[in-house]
Amino acid sequence: MGIRILNDLMLDKSALLFGVSKYLEKGIITGNVLIHKSLLAELERESNDGLVSAEIALDEVKKLKDITERILVNFEIVGDDSKKGEANELSREYCLEKGCIIVTADETQKKICDAMGVQYNFLQPLEQGLSFESFFDDETMSLHIKEDTVPRAKKGKPGNWKFVNLSDKPMLSTDVRMIANEIINAVRLIKGSFIEIERKGSLIIQLGNYRVVITRPPLSDGWEITITRPVVRKRLEDYNLDERLIKRLEERAEGIIIAGAPGMGKTTFAQALAEYYMRLGKIVKTIESPRDMHLPPEITQYSKNYAEIGELHDILLLSRPDYTVYDEMRNDEDFKLYVDLRLAGVGMVGVVHATSPIDAIHRFVNRVDIGTIPNILDTIIFINSGNVSKVYTLEITVKVPAGLKEADLARPVVEIKDLATGNTEYEIYVFGEQTMIVPVNRGITMSNMEFKISKIVNNIIPNATVKYEDGEYVIVIPKEEIGKYNRKLVQRLKRLEKKNNIKIKIKLSD
Q1: How far apart are CA 478 and CA 457, in angstroms?
Q2: Distance between CA 163 and CA 135 in Å, rounded?
Q3: Please, which residues bridge with residue 207 across strands?
Q4: Residues 6+ apart with CB under 8 A from 470
Q5: Is 15 within 8 Å of 105 (Cβ atoms)?
Q6: 116-150 pLDDT, tens per residue?
Q7: Which of 70, 256, 264, 333 has its CA 20 to 30 A from that of 272?
Q8: DSSP secondary structure string for all residues of 50-78
Q9: ∠34-37-38 over CA atoms, to 5°?
Q10: pLDDT of 234-285, one tens digit each?
Q11: Rounded Cα distance, 41 and 277, in Å
């Protein structure tokens, strides 16, 4: 019986992330396993920097060491510490010199090996499903997995869901890492999949229809995976919108804000609106971070993570879309880009987190001049429990603000009107050096003192109201905004009480 001569297999990072140990264990590939020292050094640096992929790759190295001992093949760390260069480059040089085979799942590595004449084995996908999919059913919106806790799922629809335990047994750290490894392996196999962001301690992946967020210590207190999937995909017609809103969207609305609390269906509505504009023959593009809208190929989706804000600005101005949908606007850069593109004539649809429609307008007030607000924002659509619950329109005029009497107080005023009733509910104007958003009470004229108190309070608590009852001024604050009633506001109100010899009372609304 002759001695079996085994090939030497040099593994790269992509092979480790692709789960090469399964191929070795099943006998799909055979040979002695080599790992270059430069790759281990690279994985060590990345792991110390908190990169999840490096941690997964190092887990695979440990698994390979155990498997090679079991199937009686060599496992060896090779390479020269003194040579400088990238791990892939040094691995190819080693294989050219020693005649070993590079095992890879990376298309770029494959092409370079072809060009250099380096032998390679390109890993083909194994036919197997994703284990986490067994947790999903038709009602599952998201899956929440964390080490040492039971897996849970959010089931229902936006605005009407509940948490459900999926097991009585907590998941071990090794189980969570195995699922994370499986997800990373699947990125190359599933169409429309990519690693969107990898930062210290976190990884965001688009895996087909699934959006996956993986976190690890020290960012989180344990390994955690959150997987979301769109449960509802609506057309705009499914929302049974008021005809006045449909007409406005088709004819006048070009500075649109879609607002709502997290999980209420803002992105679902934005997706439906983008498709609606596309069906009207408009050129539509999106800016997302990460890209998680599911749209037809006619709509180009840009990732904010792969381009500078200035680059996106130039691309969108040169490509001249009719509408740009800006999902998840959060920071100053996002709002600045929205404003710049809108003032340049691009129709904009922005998605923002807000607990009330007026809060969405507040996000712009201190960032732009009052005179430009109606040119930037003309339609505010508030989403609650998956439906449109409120629509505001904005118009500018010159008038005396509601509640003031003197004619010489006339100034530019932005009126915020309810589209359904046509009534003005809020006014925006400059008083002194401050920009005010003041609620308008129809049929009630504010006294000068009520106005002064409103000016102080509404600057911090926009939805609070002031009224005079039984010899005292009553400030009514919504329960959800009581956290904004701070020490600074208390001190200002006390000074006002002392100076004017009045009584001010605080009351919570139901």
Answers
A1: 12
A2: 13
A3: 210
A4: none
A5: yes
A6: 999 999 998 876 678 898 889 888 989 999 999 99
A7: 333
A8: T-HHHHHHHHHHHHHHHHHHHHT--EEEE
A9: 120
A10: 899 999 899 999 999 998 889 999 999 887 889 889 999 999 999 999 999 9
A11: 51
